């Protein structure tokens, strides 16, 4: 990507905004174009056009999933970051249209990777989100392969893809493939409200999803 | 009680048969046949009812036969046999009725025992119109017989209630004794573990006092941390909390956190109840790993209804597995992997009678 990734940060704590902004601008690929504590102000300003919106789930003491849906409905790529990490909440966040979820304690590395991946319409699964995905007992959950499930589980346990690779006796690239495939299956299962066309196109390009799978005959 | 009722019914009939001076009550052949049929049917019905065979149908049959018999006898009754018929209906038929409905609801039993003789009395008086002395004797005979039958039913209920009370008291006593034994076993176990901790700390202090070990020695520090961690876990075991496993894991991590180790504890799923011995096997392995941790440990708990996987991923090396004091049980398996300065321990618990979960990971 030639131009920097335009990121908007929505949080109600100035110290968090400054800290996150510092993390993101430390990466030359990212440019923070807006900070604030109000989702409506962001959507009302057509000039901003961020590539990614980094949204704190709890604003002014209120846990609000409607903000996620509101942004997703306008076509924004939303990355939610929160200190609340209950697996049910994470799954509901994804169902509301968030592209990815990053726990606040997961730190800079996962946050930057998530922003960069989402800006490129690529899936990214952090360890905490992996825990939520493998705990999903919903009737409409996608069917993961055994390798995908184990990769998610070990990624959740260790937060080290190199260690997961050693444990599974595959390459780190393969581990990454399993995790991204699992995430892609969740996208395909319709858990996001936003348009999935770009994500699916990327997934086909990366051989994460076969074209015939889009016809609904996924095993 | 049923036997008592049978004996009373038999005694009544014997007494009745021996009363030679009384007039023969049932002189018409149809009445005699009806009586014999009734006695036979009701006897079979009683036997089968007591054996719990075809209870409902047999009782209906017996009641119908009795009703037909009463109607037949009443229709062919001789003028001088009103009292005998009344006593027959409340005595022979009444006692058999007691046998049939002895354990029914008390209000139903009372209604039948009082209602049927009352109906018989009214029928006989209205149809035969006997003399006043006969009516009085008939009434007194019915009153005494029905009174004895109601007393028998009440005594039966009192005996049953007494037996139930006794059984309940015995059961409560057994439960109390079982709980008492369990509490004693738990207390004995805790005292044993406190004694072990006491010996461990005594040895440490003695070694320090004699100069045999140095506080600056990392191995000695680990030994102390392990002892402190076990003590904290032991104290945590007696706390009343919703999820003892998580509580004891936090207690196990406390010593490492005081050393400056950053410990993450992430839980997915609802942790089921796990026996203390199995929890100890899990937390002991986690504790030994945390003692060997240098700066960061990630503890994840993945819980399902019948399986729990506790993973400790930490930087460090040289996990002293030989220091694990609580060996894995049949319910708990332990797998430790060391790689490039990292420790990865997995403790997997499965419910004793349950099947392994689909979340189970290969070790």
TrEMBL record, chain B:
Domain of life of the source: Bacteria
Transmembrane segments: 29-49, 56-77, 97-127, 134-155
Keyword Membrane listed: yes
Keywords, in A-Z order: Membrane, Transmembrane, Transmembrane helix
UniProt keyword Membrane, yes or no: yes
UniProt-recorded name of the protein: Signal transduction histidine kinase
Organism: Lentzea miocenica
